[in-house]
C-alpha cells in the first residue's frame, strides 16, 4: 500500500506569521484596512519628487522589494502567540485589582455628577446692534415723556386751588367720633393719604406742598347677640383643640444616579461590568484616569451617534453581505468575522457604498451597526465568557490607493472604532496579502509592542489556508477560504469534524469508510490546490460480492470545483475505498469527512 501520512493540522512552520502596525492604542478595530494607508505611504515619494527622480526611486524600491519577496513569503517572523488575560477578578494581579476598584469609584462619582452626558449646545451668538423694531419702539416713548408730565401736573394744580381743608380729621362731626369710639379697634378702618401738589404762583414759580388727607373710618354695626354667642363658643373650642405641630423639615432623599450602559451592559453593578471596565483599562495600560476619560468619551459618543436607535434602523444592503460577515468560530470558541475588501473591485458596489458623502456616511453607520449587533449577539461579557472575536481580513484584489473615497471612509471608521471599541480582537489574520505589503510590515514591525505583534498575523496567497487552519478548524472555515463549511448544507454541519491529511509528493493516500449494515454513506473531500487524481469504489466484505465503481478516476485542478461530495447506498457489509494520488513534487493538504445515514435519508 502507498505511503500515507495522517495528522491534524495544528502545527505549522514559522514561516507564515508577521506583525501588523498598530496605532496609539494596543487594540485594533475590526474594520482595519491598512492596505490603503500603506499604499499611500509608498506613493508619497513619487508625489513629492520630480518625475524622472520619482521613476528612478520607484524602480529602485521595486527591485529592492522584489529581491526580498521570495524570502518574505517563505520565511516570515514568528511572534509569540497572544494569550488572553482572565476576566475573573480573583485571577488579576494586585495592581490590576486596585486599578479596577479605583476606576469603579471614579465612575460612581461621575454618575452622580452627570459627567456621562454630552455638553449642552453653545448659545446662539448675540448681535451687538439692537434690532430695528426695538429702536422704533423707544423713539415714541421718549417723545411722549413731556406730555405725560404735563398731564400729571394739570389736575393737581386745579386741585390745589380748591378748598381742601374741609376734609381734615379736625373738622369731623362729633357724632362720628362717638360712633367710632363704640366700635372695637379691630373693626375700625382708617386710611391716611399724603398727597403732593404742585402750586404755580403768579410769577410762574412752582412750589410743592404736602397735603394730608384722612379717609373717614368706616364703622360696622355691632353683631347681634345670637351671633356673638356661637362665635364665642367656637373661639373657646379652638383654645382647647391643639393644632398638630408641624414636623421638622426633612430633606428629600436625592434621586439615585441614572445607569449608563455600553453594549447592553451597565458600567457598574455586576460581574459583566468588570469585564467591560477591564477592556478600557487594558487599552490604557491600567492607567485609571486615562481609562476613565476613554469611557466617558465612548459613552458620550454613543449618545451623540445614536447607537441605540441605530440598532433599529434598516440599513441593509444585500451586496454588502459579501463584504463583511460572521461565519463559525475558532478553536477557542471566538466568533470569526470575515472582511472581504476585494469585493469593492466591483465598480457598481463601490459607487453604491462610497459614491458621495451621504453614501459614505451610510456605509459607516451600517458598519457600526453590524459591529454592535455582532457584539451583542456573538459575545458574552461574563467573566468566563468569550468577549473577543477573531478577524480574518482578505486583501485579495483590494482597491489600490487611487480609491480616495474608500481611503477616506476607512480612515474615519478606523478613528471611531479605535476610540470606542477597545480590546475586541483576540486575533487578526490578514490573508492573500501582496508581497510588497509583507515586506513593508517587516520593516515596520520593530516599532510596535509585543502585545500587538502577538495578535496580528499576515499570510501571503500561497499560505493563506494553512494559516487560517492554525486558528480555525476546517469545519468552521468557509469553502472559499479552503474549508468545508457551507450554508444550508443538508448533510454536514460544523459539529461534523474534518480530518486533515498531508500527502507527500509522488505518493498516494487511501481512505477506508467501513459499513456493517444497509445504510447511506455520504462523504466529501478536497485537496488544497488540487492537482491530484481521485477515485472511489465499494468493496463488499463477502468474497463472492462484486466491487462497485463509485467515482471514476479523475484529475482535479485548481480551476475545478473546490470540493467533491459523493454518496453510496450500501446493501451489504463492506467498505468504501477512496484513492487520492499526488503525482506532483509538492506536498498536498487533504480534507475529508463522512457520515452514515439511514436508508430513508437522501444525500
Give the biggest beta sheet. 5 strands, mixed
Structural category: alpha+beta
Distance between the termini: 30 Å
Which sequence of strands runs across the widest sheet? 5-6-7-8-9
Low-confidence stretches: 1-79, 133-183, 185-193, 225-229, 238-244
DSSP helix fraction? 25-40%
Strand fraction equals 15-25%
Q: Please tell me the overall pLDDT.
A: 75
The tally of beta strands, per DSSP, is 17
Based on CA atoms alone, the radius of gyration comes out at 45 Å
CA-based shape? elongated
Q: How many helices?
A: 15
Protein name: Patellin-3
GO molecular function: lipid binding
Region (Disordered): 1-29, 76-185
Domain GOLD: 495-596
Write up what this structure looks like.
This protein has 603 residues and is of the alpha+beta class. The chain contains 15 helices and 17 strands. The protein has helices at 34-48, 51-74, 94-112, 132-161, 174-181, 225-240, 271-283, 288-305, 307-310, 347-354, 357-378, 404-420, 435-444, 450-455, 464-471, and strands at 189-200, 206-218, 261-262, 265-266, 324-329, 335-340, 389-394, 425-431, 456-458, 499-503, 507-515, 519-527, 532-540, 548-556, 564-570, 574-582, 588-597. The strands form five sheets. It has a five-stranded mixed beta sheet. A hairpin with a 7-residue loop joins β13 and β14 (548-556). α2 packs across α13, α3 (94-112) crosses α8 (288-305) and α11 packs parallel to α12 (404-420). It starts with 33 loop residues before the first helix and ends in a 6-residue tail after the last strand. Mean pLDDT is 75; it is low at 1-79, 133-183, 185-193, 225-229 and 238-244. Residues 1-29, 76-185 are annotated as: Disordered. It holds the Pfam family CRAL_TRIO. Residues 1-15, 94-104 have a biased composition (Basic and acidic residues). It is found in: Cytoplasm; Membrane. Residues 313-489 form the CRAL-TRIO domain.
Amino acid at each position: 500500500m502507498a505511503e500515507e501520512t495522517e495528522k491534524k493540522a495544528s502545527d505549522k512552520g514559522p514561516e507564515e506569521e508577521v506583525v501588523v502596525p498598530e496605532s496609539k492604542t494596543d487594540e485594533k478595530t475590526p474594520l482595519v484596512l491598512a492596505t490603503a494607508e500603506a499604499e499611500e505611504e509608498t506613493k508619497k515619494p513619487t508625489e513629492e519628487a520630480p518625475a524622472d527622480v520619482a521613476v528612478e526611486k520607484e524602480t529602485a524600491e521595486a527591485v529592492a522589494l522584489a529581491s526580498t519577496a521570495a524570502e518574505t513569503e517563505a520565511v516570515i517572523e514568528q511572534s509569540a502567540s497572544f494569550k488572553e488575560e482572565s476576566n475573573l477578578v480573583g485571577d488579576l494581579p494586585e495592581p490590576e485589582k486596585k486599578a479596577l476598584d479605583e476606576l469603579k469609584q471614579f465612575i460612581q462619582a461621575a454618575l452622580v455628577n452627570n459627567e456621562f452626558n454630552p455638553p449642552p449646545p453653545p448659545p446662539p451668538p448675540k448681535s451687538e446692534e439692537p434690532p430695528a423694531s426695538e429702536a422704533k419702539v423707544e423713539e415714541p416713548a421718549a417723545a411722549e415723556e413731556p406730555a405725560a408730565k404735563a398731564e400729571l401736573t394739570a389736575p393737581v394744580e386745579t386741585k390745589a386751588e380748591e378748598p381742601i381743608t374741609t376734609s381734615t380729621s379736625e373738622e369731623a362731626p362729633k357724632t362720628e367720633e362717638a360712633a367710632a369710639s363704640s366700635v372695637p379697634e379691630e373693626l375700625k378702618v382708617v386710611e391716611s393719604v399724603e398727597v403732593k401738589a404742585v402750586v404755580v404762583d403768579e410769577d410762574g414759580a412752582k412750589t410743592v406742598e404736602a397735603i394730608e388727607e384722612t379717609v373717614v373710618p368706616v364703622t360696622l354695626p355691632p353683631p347681634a347677640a345670637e351671633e356673638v354667642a356661637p362665635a364665642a363658643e367656637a373661639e373657646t373650642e379652638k383654645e382647647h383643640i391643639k393644632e398638630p405641630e408641624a414636623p421638622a423639615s426633612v430633606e428629600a432623599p436625592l434621586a439615585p444616579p441614572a445607569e449608563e450602559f455600553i453594549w447592553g451592559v451597565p458600567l457598574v453593578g455586576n460581574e459583566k461590568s468588570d469585564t467591560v471596565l477591564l477592556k478600557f483599562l487594558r487599552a490604557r495600560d491600567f492607567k485609571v484616569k486615562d481609562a476613565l476619560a476613554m469611557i466617558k468619551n465612548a459613552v458620550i459618543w454613543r449618545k451623540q451617534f445614536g447607537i441605540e436607535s441605530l440598532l433599529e434602523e434598516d440599513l441593509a444592503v444585500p451586496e454588502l453581505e459579501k463584504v463583511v460577515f460572521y461565519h463559525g468560530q475558532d478553536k477557542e470558541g471566538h466568533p470569526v468575522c470575515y472582511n472581504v475588501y476585494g469585493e469593492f473591485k466591483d465598480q457598481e458596489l463601490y459607487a453604491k457604498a462610497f459614491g458621495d458623502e451621504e453614501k459614505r456616511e451610510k456605509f459607516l453607520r451600517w458598519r457600526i451597526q453590524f459591529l454592535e449587533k455582532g457584539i451583542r449577539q456573538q459575545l458574552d461579557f461574563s467573566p468566563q465568557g468569550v468577549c473577543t472575536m477573531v478577524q480574518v481580513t482578505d486583501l485579495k484584489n483590494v482597491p489600490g490607493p487611487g480609491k480616495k473615497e474608500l481611503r477616506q471612509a476607512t480612515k474615519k471608521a478606523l478613528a471611531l472604532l479605535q476610540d470606542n471599541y477597545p480590546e475586541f480582537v483576540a486575533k487578526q489574520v490578514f490573508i492573500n496579502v501582496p508581497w510588497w505589503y509583507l515586506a513593508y510590515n517587516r520593516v515596520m514591525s520593530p516599532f510596535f509592542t509585543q502585545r500587538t505583534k502577538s495578535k496580528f498575523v499576515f499570510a501571503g496567497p500561497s499560505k493563506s489556508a494553512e494559516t487560517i487552519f492554525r486558528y480555525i478548524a476546517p469545519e468552521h472555515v468557509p469553502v472559499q477560504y479552503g474549508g468545508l463549511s457551507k450554508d444550508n448544507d443538508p448533510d454536514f454541519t460544523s459539529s461534523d469534524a474534518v480530518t486533515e491529511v498531508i500527502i507527500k509528493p509522488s505518493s498516494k493516500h487511501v481512505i477506508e469508510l467501513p459499513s456493517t449494515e444497509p445504510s447511506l454513506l455520504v462523504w466529501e473531500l478536497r485537496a488544497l490546490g488540487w492537482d491530484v487524481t481521485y477515485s472511489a469504489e465499494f468493496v463488499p466484505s463477502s468474497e463472492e460480492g462484486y466491487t462497485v465503481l463509485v467515482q471514476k478516476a479523475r484529475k482535479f485542478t485548481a480551476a475545478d470545483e473546490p470540493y467533491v461530495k459523493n454518496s453510496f447506498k450500501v446493501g451489504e457489509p463492506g467498505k468504501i475505498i477512496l484513492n487520492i494520488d499526488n503525482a506532483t513534487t509538492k506536498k498536498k493538504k487533504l480534507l475529508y469527512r463522512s457520515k452514515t445515514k439511514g436508508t430513508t435519508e437522501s444525500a
